[in-house]
Task: structure prediction
Amino acid sequence: MSELLLRKSALFTMRFQTVPALGVGDLLSGQLATTTQEQLVAMSSLTGCHRRLSGEEHRILSHIPSGQWMPAAQVAGDLAVSNGAIDALLEDGFLLGDTPEGRIATLREQEEKMLALDWDDFAALYHVQSRVHDLDVAAPLRQAAAMQPTGDQGPPPGAPFQDFLALGAQMSAELHAKSEHFDPPPPPFHKPRNAEPVQNLPLPEGDSAFQALLRHRKTTRVFDQNRPLGLQELSTVLYYTFGCFGHIELAPGLIGLRKTSPSGGSLHPIEAYPLILNVENVHPGIYHYDVERHGLSLLRPMTLEEARHHAVTFTLGQSYFGSAHALVLLTARWFRNFWKYRKAQKSYRVIHVDAGHLSQTLYLLCTEMGLGAFYTGAINDINIEQALDLDPLQEGVIGVAGCGQLLPGGGPLTLETLPYVPPR
Result:
């Protein structure tokens, strides 16, 4: 520790958090906490760590600058703090050290990289803090199924996408519970407080093919396993959703692309990585969609069961997505936008809007082709990044789309809505 140099990371924030506190009177009377106290919470944009700081740790961070190095032994001596507190701050990325290798060196290099990529401070904090790993929303269902006596109804533990009915029932039950215990849900239609009386607009006349397409767009969660997705169908979905139809040189070396969906600055930073499960003449696995060549590059071959397992894992255990014929993992090459919009507060948001445009294009295209489609932001970002071998500061996961053959009759989990016409 004596030779280690320290400096404070430039990529974390602190805030105060009010929490209940037990006083002596509370303890003696056996009551719940009747007082509160302020705790200092630190959030790292480097590691995603989010935790309360001790008084000792706060003194260390207040003492060490971010712009110059200080000997660790001097810090420990000046502040009379333990090496354990310094080690904890190093591990969580609040302090950086000058070691040449190991985790401390990796964190120092990551900070240098993030600062060089011109991330906006608040975008970086949100991006790192919102990534999750190994989250499984269906785990309670599988645990409950494992505890059922022999002969009871229920899916076998770990069975691929057979628990989607139970998962759907759980989601419905949670919504009803929230309706009973929380404030009333916000109304479906919004009316500003100071708006003038409504002036009715004439209802649209006619019914074009495109208007009918818009009306029939919907999310599909369960797909027909008895029919593979055709190779031509997959090609059409990828080409008309992610393919390129024009280009222009915006500046020396900076090529803007024209696609079927809009993108901020014509930069189109979203990359598509198909996870193939059941497509004719395409082996299951993870591929990259090469826009320049309109082709697939295999990254990781899999068996069908492995591909289904990854499909469910990537989507937080939403088992029904394991029945899709192809998923598309959407990532963003951040610096593709950040190069032009340096430290722009809106740049990170615009990239997510780009993904939204692409998902709607995929929905409409699949609807027109008679296929089912979905898009979800409920994803295990870190699992996908590891499977794709991505550096999340260079290229990070946005969401997961998917498509496949429709199940005859619609199948379970199909939401059938009642028709609605604006009242007159």
